[in-house]
Amino acid sequence: MTTSVNNNSGGDQPQGSGNAQLARRRFLQKLGLMGAVAASYTLLEVQAKTAASSDKRWGLFIDTSKCSSGCDACVRGCNEEHGIDAGKDEHTRAQWIRKIDLTDNLTGAESSVPVMCQHCDSAPCVDVCPTGASFKRADGVVLVNKHTCIGCRYCMMACPYKARSFIHENLTDQKPSAPRGKGTVESCTLCVHRIDSDQNQQPACAVSCTDEAHSAIVFGDLNDPDSDISKKLKTVGGSQIRADLSLNTGVRYHGL
Q1: What is the average per-residue pLDDT within 235-244?
Q2: DSSP letter at 131?
Q3: I want to staple 148 with a disulfide (CB 3.0 to 4.6 A). Which of 133, 222, 223, 231 is the partner?
Q4: Domain 20-254 belongs to what topology?
Q5: How far is Cα 146 from Cα 180, in angstroms, rounded to an integer?
Q6: Cα-atom radius of gyration of the chain, to the nearest Å?
């Protein structure tokens, strides 16, 4: 049976049930919206890949001597930037960055350490991903493609820093700059939407730390000897968490 539709503007109504036509129209509207959202997410991820250049190696320098155990400005800044609900149970909510308090067993010295994806040059998460969803950009930033992530969580098991989260629940009110999805894995992106912008903005964690007058986090290009981060590392040095793994991390610490 064929149903014809008159698209003229003379006021004629389409043949068939009015309710069926309304349902069909709503379905197509939803389908179009879903397609637009998916297209925008895909565009963001394509831009994230193509914006990178091997001339740069983005990284973080974290001075733990300036980091207070009672301060979580970097965590709050990250959560706000990416729409992460910090009010959920700590066992189910996403954590792109977390604070860990350490005590040296020999000296008793205490440190408060922000830990996030270390953006490894030889990233275990990328090596074990069966679909290629985990990938490393030319500039060293490690990301997850939500469209090809199947939620197997191999990357979570491979990461020695426990820096990735699995999303168990439906998400609402997402931010266009930080696409997320139920059934996928996510982690720190170094705020690629900010550093790839024309303004070359700093990641949210570094901005929040500076706003709190701690300035414990310095972001920059590790390949540029004149960058602030390179000057810091040359002056005071920096260490890697689990340097024995030879992952050549993009995040370096001072004062551990």
Answers
A1: 95
A2: S
A3: 133
A4: Alpha-Beta Plaits (3.30.70)
A5: 7
A6: 23
Contact 123, 113 (CB under 8 A): no
Kindly list the domain boundaries of the chain, sorted by start residue. 20-254
Q: What is the spatial distance between Cα 10 and Cα 131, in angstroms, rounded to a whole number?
A: 53
155 burial type by CB count under 10 A (0-12 exposed, 13-18 middle, 19+ buried): buried
Lowest mean pLDDT: which of 57-61, 111-115, 247-251? Answer: 111-115
Give the CA angle between residues 162, 166, 167 to the nearest 5°: 145
**Distance (Å, rounded) from C-alpha 43 to C-alpha 21?**
32
Helix (H, G, I), strand (E, B) or coil at 188: coil
At 22-51, the pLDDT tens digits run 666 665 554 444 444 444 445 455 555 556
pLDDT band at 85 (very low <50, low <70, confident <90, very high): confident
Q: What is the dihedral of CA 67, 72, 78, 80, to 10 degrees?
A: -150
